[in-house]
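Handout, tutorial session.
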Amino acid sequence: QVQLVESGGGLVQAGGSLRLSCAASGITFNIKTMGWYRQAPGRERELVAAFTTDTSTNYADFVKGRFIISRDNAKNTVYLQMNALKPEDTATYYCNVRSWPMRTNYWGQGTQVTVSS
């Protein structure tokens, strides 16, 4: 059974930083992508950043230069370092793994990030 456990969310002032972690377990298939999405109230879930290969990454335009995705393969963990946070970054952040070739999406339970102005 796939489990994605996120941690690291919280309340921070604008301009501050947070680091999210996602520990993965139970993955017995090939991974297409692994990364982070977010969903704010009343909005659709959107990609934040993801690994598209072992080393290649894809970032949403609105986080380029501010957020950094990284991974520790030995710990099966992916991280999201979020810097220069803005109030509009407030959302629930979800860890995602997409399998290959079935392209099944697996999601974590989400971690709340709130940025105050």
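The second record follows below. Compare its token runs with those of the first.
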Amino acid sequence: QVQLVESGGGLVQPGGSLRLSCEASGFIFSNYAMSWYRQAPGKERVLVAFITSSGGSTNYADSVKGRFTISRDNAKNTVYLQMNSLKPEDTAVYYCKATRSRSVAWGQGTQVTVSS
């Protein structure tokens, strides 16, 4: 069955870094575009970063440009989100999403808390 499992979240101080991972199974990972979303308490889930199936193109929300980097390893069926210079406003549950045409799958999310 299709499964996306995020990991790497946690508590970090402002200015710190974290790397999130999302491991996929149950589908041909290299055929799917991948995204990271986040949802802060009381707010809507919003797109953070996107990467095409080949990894050749990426896109970022303005709020994370220059601080976050999305990448993927199709041999490992894994997409990553490197997060640097973290701010308290980056606190949220982070979700990965796989998309191909009308086919969509979500992970269960991983909590990121940025606080001193």
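Points raised in discussion: The CA atoms of residues 72 and 79 lie 4 Å apart.
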